[in-house]
Amino acid sequence: MELIVLGAGPAYPERPGATGAAYLLQNGDDSLLLDLGQGSFPALYGRIEPSRLTGIVVSHLHPDHFIDLVALRHYLRWEFTPPRRVRIVAPAGLADRIDALHDEPGFSAQSFDVERIRVGEQDIGPFAVEAARVKHTAESYGFRVTLDGTPAASPGLVYSGDCGRADDLRPLIRPGDTLLAEASFGPGPVPEGASHLDGPAVGELAASSGAGRVLLTHLQMGFDRDATVASVRARYGGPVAFVDPGFETEI
Fold first, then answer.
1. Where are any strands of DSSP class E within 92-244?
2. Cβ distance 54 to 31 under 8 Å?
3. Please, which of 86, 116, 217, 230 could form a disulfide with 8 given CB 3.0 to 4.6 Å?
4. What is the pLDDT of residues 98-116, one digit of tens each?
5. What is the DSSP-derived secondary structure letter of residue 189?
């Protein structure tokens, strides 16, 4: 399967083009989207016709990870006759939040089939998605994604979402996996009370879990990329790089 980065920015990026979190996985005609943050809908539209998505998984209910679902809802509702629908797997309350934003009960239900995430594995088309709770909001998740039918030892993609405790991701990681991890606070340290990761925490997790490579994302403004990469490499000997919109790689 192929990973295509549509958006990799934090809640308030200063870099042009640093749109909110959105990571597209493709396998043949099937596509799974991990999050859809601010400004990422145009990038999604530029890669696939959005109503063809097999499903969307939302890691947590902060707007920089889901707010462009509003744009997607309008697109599905008004660009097609009859309107089209997309399956969404998300923490509790996603539909209510989008409905409240428009002060319109049922706004989401007109275009989305929303399901509650459950801890453990579930299938979304050919994608096997394993979810684990992580420290961030009251209900936040990290994910491991593989393809159904692949050998258990085959590498997958582990996506941190936003995560305040690196060890919460450890149960998801198998040796050789690609770890797509937020490094919000660069080379660190993470301020008291901020439920996010920094480079040293990501590096220690990757080294101790046997991750095959690390892809960094969600860097807060004011932090240096090179210093962040160096802080990961000081603890982990595998490949490390930041991702930006347009980045593509095979998993």
1. 112-116, 120-124, 127-134, 140-147, 157-159, 178-182, 213-217, 240-242
2. yes
3. 217
4. 999 999 999 999 999 999 9
5. P
Structure-token pair, residue 127: 């994608």
- Buried b / exposed e along 1-11 (16+ C-beta atoms within 10 A): bebbbbbbbbb
Of 162, 193, 129, give the one whose Cα is nearest residue 62: 162
Nearest to 60 by CA among 158, 161, 145: 161
Nearest partner of 22 among 81, 87, 68, judged by Cα: 68
Q: What is the pLDDT of residue 152?
A: 74
* Higher per-residue confidence, 151 vs 84: 84
Please tell me whether residue 33 adopts helix, strand or coil conformation: strand
List pLDDT tens digits, range 119-164: 999 999 999 999 999 999 999 999 999 999 888 778 999 999 999 9
Name the β-bridge partners of 143. 131, 159
Name the strand (E) or helix (H) holding 250: strand 248-250
| Strand pairing category for 213-217 and 240-242 | parallel
Instruction: Of 3, 4, 6, give the one whose Cα is nearest residue 245.
Output: 6
Q: How many CA atoms lie within 13 A of 232 on its CB side?
A: 31
How confident is the model at residue 247, as a pLDDT? 98
Q: How confident is the model at residue 16 (pLDDT cuts 50, 70, 90)?
A: confident
